[in-house]
Specification:
Blueprint: H1 23-37, H2 46-57, H3 62-76, E1 82-88, H4 95-100, E2 102-107, H5 109-115, H6 124-133, H7 137-140, H8 143-152, H9 154-169, H10 190-204, H11 207-220
Antiparallel strand pairs: 1-2
Helix pairs in contact: 1-3, 1-5, 2-3, 5-6, 6-8, 8-9
């Protein structure tokens, strides 16, 4: 049984019993990952995306093409997460289609925020710079601290993006942009509360207590 949400973005959707990500969640994550990491426009067409995912899953790409088409045209593009970046000419097929070409896609700024929440994406530092290069004055206030955290404690820094995007998926945040982490303040999140408590206490500890605390944590992590 699938846990249903009102929002269309399903990257955190899980099966209620197994707790595993649904097929839709994995498919949307794969699309966003490909658009975040592939420069070649051919890889960013619907066919290209389908072929990359199919190769990973060892299945025929035509079997998943319709799912990719629906995710893009009915979910990711309408939500402003993905946009058409241009069109590639076709050498074969109907003349009308050859004339207009096939679309390839990019992540929008909102899409990059979503990509920062997906742990499988390995170029998130680069994506983070892209976000702040397009930021407005409100978003700029987070640039220095988030950048520093991403370099010193990347797991913690990107877990914040995960919580931010997940709150959007749960309809606890109305929109991802403007990027404003204060939107998380009214959302109950036990892990964030624990992390804040540990940091506040740790800063007050003596040098010996800090060392003993780190030694303890090393034993359990």
């Amino acid at each position: 049984m699938k846990v249903k949400k009102n929002t269309q973005l399903s990257i955190f959707d899980t099966f209620k019993i197994k707790g595993e990500l649904t097929g839709e969640a994995n498919r949307q994550r794969a699309i966003i990952t490909i658009l975040a990491t592939n420069v070649n426009p051919i890889d960013r067409t619907r066919t290209g995306i389908s072929q990359i995912i199919a190769k990973i899953q060892n299945i025929a790409w035509k079997n998943i093409y319709s799912g990719i088409f629906l995710d893009l045209n009915e979910i990711l593009i309408p939500l402003g997460i993905v946009e058409e970046a241009g069109r590639l000419p076709l050498k074969r097929g109907p003349k009308a289609l050859q004339a207009i070409g096939v679309p390839y896609y990019n992540l929008t700024k909102k899409g990059v925020v979503v990509a920062l929440s997906i742990s499988d994406i390995n170029n998130r530092q680069e994506l983070l710079k892209k976000i702040f290069s397009q930021s407005d004055s409100k978003e700029k206030e987070y640039e220095r601290i988030i950048t520093n955290l991403s370099e010193t404690t990347p797991n913690f820094a990107f877990s914040i993006f995960q919580k931010y995007v997940k709150a959007f998926c749960n309809n606890e945040i109305k929109d991802l942009l403007p990027f404003d982490l204060s939107k998380l303040k009214g959302i109950s999140d036990e892990s964030l509360i624990i992390q804040k408590e540990i940091l506040e206490v740790f800063l007050k500890l003596s040098k010996q207590d800090k060392e003993e605390t780190i030694t303890f944590l090393n034993k359990i992590t």
